[in-house]
Amino acid sequence: MADTLTVSYSCKEDVHTIETGGVVLPQIVIDNRGVPQEQRGGTAKRLLAAASLYCYCSMLEAALLARDVDFDDISATAELELGRNEQGRSRVLKMTIRCSVRVNERDEAIFQRVEKIMAQGCLVTGSLHDGIATEYELVPTFFSE
């Protein structure tokens, strides 16, 4: 049986709240009050890039620590290439993660093995390039005034 993870979302008065259930990041709040409509776009793409970067860099750190590699100063960027698919829908067409880490040269051989592992991505980026089976269930709730 597969493990499951549930994250919840609510929106009230243009404040979007994501409850993660996590200890380190229990809640993400996106407050659009006072932000012009034309400046609101791109938040989900930024969250995708941020989740990908965090996952990738955390896995890199864990892989280096597990092999006792002497390192510090991990920094990275995620660049999303945006466009449209064959049906004309907006999509993220490509993600490029650029990452640098300072590694003691005596650990170069071990780092090269870690580099091969990281070429497969992390949980998030690996899932994206493998494809994610997705189902949608949209259930309306009706009310009267």
Describe this structure in words.
By secondary structure, this protein is an alpha+beta fold. It folds into two domains: 33 residues, no CATH class; 89 residues, GMP Synthetase, Chain A, domain 3, CATH 3.30.300. 30% of the residues lie in helices and 30% in strands. It has three helices and five strands; from the N terminus they run βββαββαα. Strands 1-2-3 form a three-stranded antiparallel sheet, with no helix packed on it. A two-stranded antiparallel ribbon has the order 4-5. A hairpin with a 2-residue loop joins strand 1 and strand 2. The longest helix is centred in the middle third of the chain and has 24 residues. The protein is elongated and about 70 Å long. The N and C termini lie far apart (44 Å).
